[in-house]
Amino acid sequence: MTACPPPGSCASIRPMVTKRRSHEEGHRRKFLVVVDDTPECDRAVVYASRRAARTGGGVVLLFIIDDSDFRGFLGVEQAMRAEAREAAEMTLAKVGERVKAIAGIEPDQVIREGTRSAEILAAIEADEDIAILALAAGTGSEGPGPLVTSIAGRASGTFPVPITIVPGHLGDDEIAAMA
Q1: What pTM was estimated for this model as a whole?
Q2: pLDDT above 90: residue 157
Q3: Per residue, what are the HEC states of the chain?
Q4: pLDDT at 37 (0 to 100)
Q5: Are the beta carbons of 136 and 47 closer than 8 angstroms?
Q6: Can you give the pLDDT at residue 4?
Q7: On the chain, which terminus has fewer CB atoms closer than 10 Å, C or N?
Q8: % of the chain beyond a pLDDT of 70
């Protein structure tokens, strides 16, 4: 067990993280949801929307474009990027409408390019009001899902915000009762 000297002097043990300001004047707590094409994504959207509405918070919808899809395609890289961005914008618009229908909240919509885990961390670092990452577990026999698995592997005590994992089998009413 490593003991820390006075507060603030253990920077080498704990990663530097932007201070969360969601409870300060002029700020509000935001729930981050990673938007993708998995069925469980909607469960995380429902939970985050309901919880944000109940607590006076906000929702950030993050779509991550995997930039490895463009590597090695000289000459068509820009066209592929533009298509991916257009698809991301359409998906976020649709999910944003779902958030508004559930909770009456206009969500922030963010598109980032890169690897999922790095871009989730970058989005959290960029918005000091993001206080919770909401994910949903898959319902299949292959496990909780690739996003939950990858984040859980990185969240070994150094993840910058709490992570809420919503069981993927819950219906809208069950989630609403808990949120």
Answers
A1: 0.83
A2: no
A3: CCCCCCCCCCCCCCCCCCCCCCCCCCCCCEEEEEECCCHHHHHHHHHHHHHHHHHCCEEEEEEEECHHHCCCCCCCHHHHHHHHHHHHHHHHHHHHHHHHHHHCCCCEEEEEECCHHHHHHHHHHHCCCEEEEEEECCCCCCCCCHHHHHHHHHCCCCCCCCEEEECCCCCHHHHHHHC
A4: 84
A5: yes
A6: 45
A7: N
A8: 77
